[in-house]
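Database export, one record per block. Field names are fixed; values are copied verbatim from the stored entry.
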Amino acid sequence: MHFTSHRILEAGLTEREFTLGAVAGILWTPLAASSSAPAPLILMGQPGGFGMRRMYPRLAARARSAAAQGFAAVAIESPGAGDRPALPGAEQARADLSHAIAAGERPSADVIDRLILPLVDRAVPEWQATLDEVLGLPDIAERVGFSGGVIAIGTRLAATESRIAAAGLFAGSYVPRTTMEEARRVTIPLHVLLQWDDLGNDRQMALDLFDAFGSAEKTLYANMGGHTGVPPFAGDDAARFFARHLSAAVG
């Protein structure tokens, strides 16, 4: 991990940009974090295809919210986003998905697999490599949460990465067939956010995925409204979820 910039933001927050191989990222850490009082870490997932620069205002706001709880936060550039090369076949798969939705049809499992699985296959190892590096810093605690989308990425991480203790997932994207199988292996506490009127998502698929999760503690938090209509107070519930599962485990 190579840090390329360092600055102090308002509200007692340090922001450091970094590169890890070909992957760029940003790490936000509360100023109060230290080797004697390390901060738990939130991995901040983001929608596929937008890129960190476009998403920066939302990511920084989420990092400030995490810091208010005493948490550090990290985001990395998704495969195929920002300045990274496009994933092979992604453009055609996205066009096929859009065509099916415009025609009022349910996208085929093949289209969903072609669009989502290459992203998951690349993103999960990159998140794990990021964890290897960030958890080696003296001011970062070993208790980790995952927050956001893409839900198939969060599901695989929750199923395979033992360092993640809790996950807050956004059911805002289609789900490959293998993700349903991986969900059955997830046992950590989950907080799943669903926008009930999200026209770009399959509500029944999201409900089936929630049902498939093997976690003994899982909460489905559904609100009326479309994909971008998440009410501000939904963040308060997610914050309480992470405080319950990360803060109490540290110290």
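Remark 1: The chain has one domain: 2-247.
Remark 2: The first helix runs from residue 52 to 68.
End of record.
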